[in-house]
Amino acid sequence: MDREAFQERFGLIGDSAALKQVIDKVIQVADTDITILLQGESGVGKDVTAKAIHNVSHRKHNELVIVNCGAIPEGIIESELFGHEKGSFTGAHETREGYFEKANGGTIFLDEIGDMPANVQVKLLRVLETGEYFRVGSSKVRTTDVRVIAATNKDLWELVQEDSFREDLYYRLDTVKVKLPPLRERPDDIIPIFRKFVTEFSAEYDSVFKGFSDDAKELLQSYRWPGNVRELRNVAEQLVVLEKSQFVDTEKLKKYLKGRQHTGEADNLPVLAEQKSSSNGAFGDDDQQLIYRALVGLRNDIGDLKEMLANFLYSTISQKNIKALPQNIQDEVNETEMSSMDIDVGDADENIGVQSYTEADISKETEENEFSSFFNSGDIPSIEKTEQFLIEQALNKYEGNRRKASEALGISERTLYRKLDQYGLQ
């Protein structure tokens, strides 16, 4: 099956290079039994891709079993996957087959594989390697012949580094990795996908969609789509139902966009048209909007940096050595300290240890000297250099653990990943 036929059969709209690369890889491995790991953000279509892989494989006449590992309570996930015998636990009133038994001869799709409990991971590894498993409450070895497709919106290797995901299972799942691009990385596909959804919903709700303005089209393409195709589908449905028979402009569209755009840090800032220079050199309305947007972004960057600096310094440097830093930085640290001291007197002894200083703590002293040298070098470091310096210090302090580093910096892991990519840090 060629790419065009594959896209038409499974409704995969788009001509972007990123999408074509994914489809070509999927076609190449679909008709094998090799394990596939689908990686991508929530809403990019991992379930649709898994169904497409199954439906063009030699297992297509057998069952595709879809399992959301993150939605099954930890206490029963083993029973759900491998089945159980009657009386094996409270509430087990009859023998029950598990998903692996049900999928025998077909395909099992393990969505949100990164949320699988550690005690079940070792049993999943055995099924992947030998096809063998035990029902809960049974000592009889059973076998199954299934093709496994796993999916995650997390970085599994990062979970391995944090000891929350087995390394041997990671390598077993990572045989063929297919990275599904987020919608914001293929903006040229957004309008065709949107038109497809609008057509479907117009027919479903017996409605007429009058179209949208050029500015609204630009907004659709510049919007970040944090929910990806799923969010785009929801927006299309809302527009068809709530803006029935109305021409959609930018103002109407903004009501349904809840995330952020590619450009600008403020929510739903308008996309600026091509700037036209004024003949007399004066600032026009477009120029003022551009300056305002830049100032908003700068304000947010400075605010994030101040919070990051204060959080990290407070968690790292002793009160004894805070005075070695410039006064404005001392103020930020002291402000963070005061905001965190809403405690009972009885808790004081426990919290004193946070700022204790020991001369024998060589690594901490070295860290403090690095801070002192950086901020007292005589030159005022730029925002970018300061941010990069803090990130490097946090990663060094926590030996590369990004979760702990992001907590110390007071930012999300996603923001930390973006900053690492921005500054070329590993």
Automatic annotation (TrEMBL):
Pfam families: AAA_lid_14, HTH_8, Sigma54_activat. The keyword Transcription regulation applies. InterPro entries: AAA+_ATPase (IPR003593), AAA_lid_NorR (IPR058031), Homeodomain-like_sf (IPR009057), HTH_Fis (IPR002197), P-loop_NTPase (IPR027417), Sigma_54_int (IPR002078), Sigma_54_int_dom_ATP-bd_2 (IPR025943), Sigma_54_int_dom_CS (IPR025944). GO terms for biological process: regulation of DNA-templated transcription. Residues 12-241 form the Sigma-54 factor interaction domain. One of its GO terms (molecular function) is sequence-specific DNA binding. The keyword Nucleotide-binding applies. Gene3D superfamilies: 1.10.8.60, Homeodomain-like, P-loop containing nucleotide triphosphate hydrolases. CDD domains: AAA. Keywords: ATP-binding, DNA-binding, Nucleotide-binding, Transcription, Transcription regulation. PANTHER family: SIGMA L-DEPENDENT TRANSCRIPTIONAL REGULATOR YQIR-RELATED, TRANSCRIPTIONAL REGULATORY PROTEIN. This is Regulatory protein, Fis family. It comes from Fodinibius salinus.
